[in-house]
């Protein structure tokens, strides 16, 4: 995927690459992850194309600053921590087209860096909007370097009100989560590049072209089937930006398949050298080397305790094995066979197993806690 992107940078005669954070998924990435990313930026630098990178919430700000020192040699400007406009928070980058780009960089700032524990604990009232006001103040400072004769770009890794998160149509709302608002976006920006939310999307309410390019690949099974894209932005100082979303090529997709448990019984278990399996329903193109979530249908009999290992030995590319089990019904000795368990059902089954009966009050409390635990899960 990164190789394909580097080819596109060359083919499209790109002047400047913007990467809006979560360069890595963890603060201390693996050597292999670093090798892939650094190879990409070196390759782009060798094409004489500068890049700007800001830290996301998954990145270590200090590490981004650290490797950024060396990455300057590959024409990469890496910004791990927020800096005032005249101390590195806003940089002017010459481009080969001759039009300079002025880039204001706002790496991720956690709500806890702005707000006290007390404020974060307050629902509603003054705490609502406090994050947005702090962000607005920072943006006002870093964009002070914008110029009339340049292409002015703002980069930020944040949660923007109105953005669509996850697979539902749920939108970020400032009253229910830390979120920035479009008020902070200066009318002088030609383009605002946002990072944090995985889905490629424009922020419709923004006063200037403002986009999440989104993640380069499907990152959890909730994003299965989603087309991931990067944005090509054509912009000049005296013209509005034209934005084209272009699909990434080469990433391994995520796919969910269901197989029968009987497939792994006795002599039918072959070694990992089994010819690649064909999944007819749903149809899976194994040439894409998908990362698979395998649901094993165990409803016809007992569950083999070794099933997880067997599935991984036979099917290539398995990242997750889930079991479709007979559904227990409290008080019923003969299990009824039916679909996947909802978390509430699993909890009820657990209580049953413990010799307790799940009262409506307990299950209701479980639901409330479970819902609370999901807040923020579909963002990264
Ligand atoms: Mn993020």
TrEMBL record:
Entry keyword Heme: no
Domain of life: Bacteria
Pfam families, A to Z: Metallophos (PF00149)
Keyword field contains Secreted: no
Domain Calcineurin-like phosphoesterase: 9-70
GO molecular function annotations of the record: 3'-5' exonuclease activity; endonuclease activity
InterPro entries linked to this entry: Calcineurin-like_PHP, DNA_Repair-Maintenance_Comp, Metallo-depent_PP-like, Mre11_N, SbcD
GO biological process, one term: DNA replication
Keywords: DNA recombination, DNA replication, Endonuclease, Exonuclease, Hydrolase, Nuclease
Subunit structure, interactors included: Heterodimer of SbcC and SbcD.
Family named by the database record: Belongs to the SbcD family.
Annotated function: SbcCD cleaves DNA hairpin structures. These structures can inhibit DNA replication and are intermediates in certain DNA recombination reactions. The complex acts as a 3'->5' double strand exonuclease that can open hairpins. It also has a 5' single-strand endonuclease activity.
NCBIfam families listed in its UniProt record: sbcd (TIGR00619)
Protein name: Nuclease SbcCD subunit D
């Amino acid at each position: 995927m990164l190789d394909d992107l580097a080819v596109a940078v060359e083919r499209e005669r790109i002047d400047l690459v913007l990467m809006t954070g979560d360069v890595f998924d963890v603060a201390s990435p693996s050597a292999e992850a670093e090798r892939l990313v650094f190879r990409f930026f070196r390759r782009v630098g060798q094409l004489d194309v500068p890049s700007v990178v800001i830290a996301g919430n998954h990145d270590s700000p200090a590490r981004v600053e650290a490797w950024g020192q060396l990455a300057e040699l590959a024409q990469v400007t890496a910004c791990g921590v927020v800096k005032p406009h005249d101390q590195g928070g806003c940089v002017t980058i010459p481009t080969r087209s001759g039009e300079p780009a002025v880039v204001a960089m706002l790496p991720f700032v956690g709500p806890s860096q702005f707000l006290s524990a007390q404020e974060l604990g307050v629902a509603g009232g003054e705490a609502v909007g406090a994050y947005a006001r702090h962000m607005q103040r920072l943006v006002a400072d870093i964009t002070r370097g914008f110029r009339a004769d340049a292409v002015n770009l703002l980069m930020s890794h944040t949660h923007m009100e109105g953005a669509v998160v996850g697979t539902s149509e749920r939108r970020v709302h400032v009253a229910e989560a830390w979120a920035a608002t479009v008020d902070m976006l200066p009318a002088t920006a030609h383009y605002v590049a946002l990072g944090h939310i995985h889905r490629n999307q424009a922020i419709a309410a923004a006063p200037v072209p403002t986009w999440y390019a989104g993640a380069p690949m499907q990152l959890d099974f909730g994003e299965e089937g989603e087309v991931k894209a990067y944005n090509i932005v054509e912009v000049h100082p005296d013209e509005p930006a034209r934005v084209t979303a272009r699909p990434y090529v080469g990433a391994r997709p995520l796919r969910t398949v269901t197989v029968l448990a009987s497939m792994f019984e006795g002599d039918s278990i072959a070694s990992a050298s089994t010819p690649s399996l064909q999944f007819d329903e749903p149809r899976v193109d194994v040439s894409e080397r998908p990362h698979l979530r395998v649901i094993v249908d165990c409803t016809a009999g007992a569950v083999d305790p070794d099933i997880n290992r067997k599935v991984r030995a036979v099917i290539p590319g398995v990242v997750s094995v889930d079991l479709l089990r007979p559904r227990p019904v409290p008080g019923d000795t003969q299990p009824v066979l039916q679909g996947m368990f909802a978390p509430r059902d699993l909890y009820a089954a657990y209580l049953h197993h413990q010799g307790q009966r799940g009262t409506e009050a307990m299950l209701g409390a479980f639901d409330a806690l479970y819902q609370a635990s999901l807040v923020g899960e579909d963002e990264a």
